[in-house]
Amino acid sequence: MKVDRRSFLGLGLGAAAGVAVSPVGIKLTDDSSIWTQNWPWTPVPKDGEISYDSSVCSICPGNCGISIRKIDKRPVKIEGQEGYPVNDGGACLHGIAGLQYLYDPARVRQPLKKTGDTFQPISWDEAITLMSDKLAVIRDKAPERLVCIGDKNTGSVPGLFKHFLTAFGSPNYYAMPGLSTYLELTAQTLHGAGYTLGFDLENADFVLSFGAGIIEGWGSPVSCFKANASRKERHAKLYQIEPRLSNTAANADKWIPVTPGSEGDLALSMCGVLLGKNLFDSGFAANFRGGFNKFVAMVRNEYAPEKVAAATGISAEDIEKTALMFARAKAPVAVPGKGRGAGAQSLKEFAAIHVLNCLTGNINKKGGVFVMPQDEYLSFPDPVMDEIAEAGAGKDKLAGSVSDLVARLNKASSPAVEGLLVYNANPCYTLNNPKEVKQAFEKIPFVAAFSSFLDETAMAADLVLPMSTFLEKTEDVPPSPGLSKSIIGLGRQIIDPVFHSKSPGDALILLANGLEGSIAESFEWDSYSDCLESLAADVWDTLSEEGHLVVSEEPPAGLPGVDFSFLSDNPETMEPQGDGPLILVPIDNMRLTQSVPASSPFAVKTVSDRILSGKDILVEVNPATAKGFKDQSLATLTTPAGSARVRINLNEGIMPGVIGMARGLGHTFDNKFVSNKGVNVNELIGPVIEAGSGLDAAFGIRAKLS
User: Fold this and answer.
1) What are the Cα distances from residue 354, in Å, to 178, 185, 275, 360, 668?
2) Which domains can be identified in the chain, with CATH numbers?
3) Which of 101, 466, 533, 617 is geometrically suited to a Cys-Cys bond with 678, CB 3.0 to 4.6 A?
4) pLDDT in tens, 121-154
5) Distance in angstroms (rounded) separating the CA atoms of residues 227 and 202
6) How many Cα atoms occupy the beta-carbon half-sphere of 217 within 13 Å?
């Protein structure tokens, strides 16, 4: 009898379930442990010296410290690192399963060049030569038309890509949407450039969450788990405002159902209540500037509770009652960012929620919101600028965000972008309406992906450069988004690269040298390791010896000014596209990742059968909405962006008129453990670009079930 890995896992899970309800459990468990050690197909790590290394996990933005157990220098287990200031020994299931990414079937094993519809393996020398030749032509023609899309804004590798673009002659670096970019933009809009926001959930006594998935992966997940776990002991309250009874809402002291997309209007209405009753902090009000009086008149007239009650689905009495409870708490904090905070979001909503914090005056105080300077622990030298670089880098950026860029590319009659570099990002899966993203990519003459995995975006590239995973490289890890403690980590190389991959810094240094001239002169480091040590020279001794650097655990000194100009102009509230009777909204699930890397096989196996049944995705529908449908019955879900086959999950914990679909499924690349399971909800939602920010603010879309 041949038993493959999948069958073996099935047998093991079935046996475990049987043992759990059997009166002979202990005996059988003991016997089975002996039998399984003798089965010839059971993988057994070879014996060797046991050792432990410490590093930082960068699978998600949580940036937890991890301890890696090794046998004969091969990593065999990942656990949370005791004493690490972000997670103190805790770890989520994605970090625990991190070893699976080393041997992922979708790993890019060597550079790949697309010929027709297929990829051909080539050497690193060939790849760098090909890329250098392509970029040299672009630089002579229009250097500002070279664009880079990266996973984030901060850190040495995004900094090196920006450094490369500046020396090349382009201002067009874009970070993928994420909680860190939204918090940076909110702080920039209200307080000025160079700031971000952190939330002291551990010490707040009243947390008013506008859909933030405190236990669904928001911010630094393990840190949020710990803060939430201590809430009862601290007698702190959590009110959760969102359209469905998520795990966070179920764990909250009160769940306040709200019509999707009206969260920003609700926050402004609460601001009006505080201002109308003079419950705002008069001391902090001295820092208010830039349209404050206009803002006061606007919220009191346009967002009175009686006016927004119908739009939000919350009575005027409850709006006022919640606002008063929030204002009278000793250490209140309002938290923005629906779900993980990484999907499409509105600057209006983020700004309105932050102004609610500002009105209470709980800024840079224990249990409140910290307006923190962005850590400048890296010192980049000025790039060498020739005439081409000076002219190109001084031009305006092509768009306000990645989604805005995609929209502009698809509207352009001729190529607005000549070359695109994508690093550690998967916009052809993660952004709303991936079909439009792929169409935009097809209009770009040359696309190169710096990627560890042959995912949807890498499949759309002309050249794929294999990047090492987080266990195969040394790299700095910037502070986690939303965390009140500013902690810089150092991810260490634990194992030699399994395949022919390189660290992104080394690949970029090779590329710069291939272009020669002023670009090569801007990258005079021999290797990325030398580069990192040079860039972080001021903190390198502590960072390399301790594995992390705590920049600050205390509230920043001083109080920032608050500029109300953006909100005082009353930006438009985004409406969902279409005219269907229902609203489809994405659901963030702690067991599923949203971007790079895709969920591990282990994580996918843990997904509930109320979310994924076989290959079918289930959508949450209130029984009052799903008249004519039975639980688990098949249906067609249709939106203006497309349609999909789904199963119905009748759930009274979601508002009538709303459909919820899990985000993180529906991958289409070559990985039998992860792909072709369920539907990518982003394929059913079209982008809606917010005026004034350039962000995709599509929280959902009109839909119908048939």
Assistant:
1) 17, 12, 15, 10, 38
2) 1-44 (no CATH), 112-178+377-472+499-529 (3.40.50.740), 201-367 (3.40.228.10), 582-705 (2.40.40.20)
3) 617
4) 999 999 999 999 999 999 999 999 999 999 999 9
5) 5
6) 25
